[in-house]
Design goal:
Layout (H helix, E strand, L loop, with lengths): L15 E2 L8 H15 L8 H9 L8 H15 L4 E3 L1 H8 L4 H5 L4 E6 L3 E6 L7 H19 L5 E5 L8 H7 L1 H4 L3 E6 L5 E5 L1 E3 L2 E2 L15 E5 L6 H9 L5 E5 L7 E7 L5 E11 L13 E2 L3 H15 L2
Parallel strand pairs: 1-12, 4-5, 5-10, 10-11, 11-14
Antiparallel strand pairs: 2-13, 3-4, 6-7, 6-13, 8-9, 12-13
Helix pairs in contact: 1-2, 6-7
Length: 317
């Protein structure tokens, strides 16, 4: 029987709850929010959260509506860094219950084909599903597509992440698992010295539960991974997962530059902050939370594919 798991967010981080009554004074609400943000933020030692709290308290009173308060805090979140964001209750409930319009309208945001009868091309867009059923279907469908391409005996893979703006990383990681292979492929490093491992499978008994079982392709083919300015968040994590493999090269332009993990914080009224809390790295723990730079620079689409063909041809058996 397939094992499932569920996370109500768009990253591997764990949900943190502020355990208070549903209704509290607005000034106290602000103070709790800022305290939580500071505790989990990657920038806790460099950003002045005390000044932020003082500035917000000057604009808030008990007569401030909850919607106005949410708008004020959303603006404050965006001032901390460009990756942190908020989710209102209706949005994350949609995600949990499988009613996210983005997923319903496009449940399988990927495509694949064989180019020139030789190169297995996979274009992977962001996936914003948060419920287990959508993630399970996504993973199965992506793995099936990869299997069909592999059976056509390609010389190598072209993994296009240029338009992958992120989303729920576990589903994408599991879906690409047969190509990524076993072992830890990336990490998140947190300010307190702890870390989070990212992998498709460590062993037959230790693997991402969105997969039926652990399986990889018999042959490790060379891969060209395409990145660019629209590659962001979980899309950058995928790029980092490929980096460090001797048979893989990142080709294209620098990524958007939010290679940071997100921790969600749920307030008493179910308003959710998603705060950048750690730095994503590759398998060698190399990373800085900013843009990921290609190993082969190419700004022209036609040239990018030519470089991909060349890399695969020069590294195939």
């Amino acid at each position: 029987m397939k094992k499932m798991f569920l996370l109500p967010l768009l990253s591997f981080g764990m949900l943190s709850c502020v355990n208070q009554p549903d209704s509290i004074p607005q000034e106290e609400y602000v103070s709790q929010a800022i305290d939580s943000l500071e505790h989990y933020s990657l920038y806790q030692s460099t950003y002045n959260f005390d000044s932020l709290e003082k500035a917000l308290l000057l604009t808030v009173s008990d007569s401030t509506s909850q919607e106005a308060l949410h708008n004020i805090l959303e603006k404050a979140i965006h001032s901390i860094d460009k990756h942190s964001y908020v989710l209102r209750k209706e949005k994350w409930v949609q995600m949990l219950e499988g009613e996210n319009p983005e997923v319903l309208n496009n449940p399988f945001p990927f495509q694949g084909k064989l180019i020139n009868g030789k190169y297995a091309f996979v274009s992977l867009y962001g996936f914003s599903g948060g419920d287990s059923i959508a993630a399970d279907n996504y993973c199965d469908s992506l793995q099936n597509m990869l299997s069909n391409l592999y059976q056509q005996k390609p010389a190598g893979w072209i993994i296009d992440l240029r338009y992958n703006n992120g989303g729920w990383a576990p589903a994408m990681f599991a879906g690409l698992g047969p190509i990524l292979g076993r072992g830890v492929k990336a990490y998140t490093l947190f300010p307190n010295g702890s870390s989070q491992e990212y992998y498709y499978a460590k062993s037959d008994a230790d693997y991402l539960l969105l997969s039926d079982s652990v399986w990889t392709f018999d042959e490790t083919l060379p891969a060209a991974v395409l990145i660019g300015g629209r590659t962001g968040s979980a899309g950058e994590l995928l790029a980092l997962a490929f980096r460090g493999n001797s048979k893989t090269r990142l080709i294209g332009e620098p990524t958007y530059g939010v290679s940071t993990d997100i921790t969600p914080i749920l307030m008493p009224d179910s308003f959710q902050f998603n705060i950048a809390s750690g730095i994503m790295t590759d398998r060698n723990k190399t990373g800085n939370g900013g843009p990921i730079h290609p190993e082969i620079v190419s700004v022209d689409t036609e040239n990018t594919f030519e470089e991909s063909y060349k890399w695969i041809d020069n590294n195939k058996k």
